[in-house]
Amino acid sequence: MQRTARLLALIAGLCAAAPTSEALAQKYPSRPVKIMVGFSAGGPVDVVARIVGDRVGNRLGQPFVVENRAGANGMIAAEGVAHADADGYTMLACNSSTITLNKTLFKDIRYDPEKDFAPLTTVVSAPLVLVVNPENPRTADIKTVADLVAAAKAKPGELAYGSGGNGNLAHLAMELLAQKAGIKLIHVPYRGGAASEVGILAQEVLAVFDPLSAVPLVKAGKLRALAVSSAERLPALPDVPTVAEAGYPGFDISFWVGFFMPKATPAPVLQTLHQEIVTAAKDPAVAEKLGSQGVVSVLSPDDYAAKIAKETKELAEVVAAANIKAE
Question: Which ranges constitute the DSSP H helices of the chain?
Answer without folding.
Answer: 2-17, 21-27, 44-60, 75-82, 96-100, 102-105, 113-116, 145-154, 169-181, 193-201, 214-219, 267-282, 284-290, 301-322
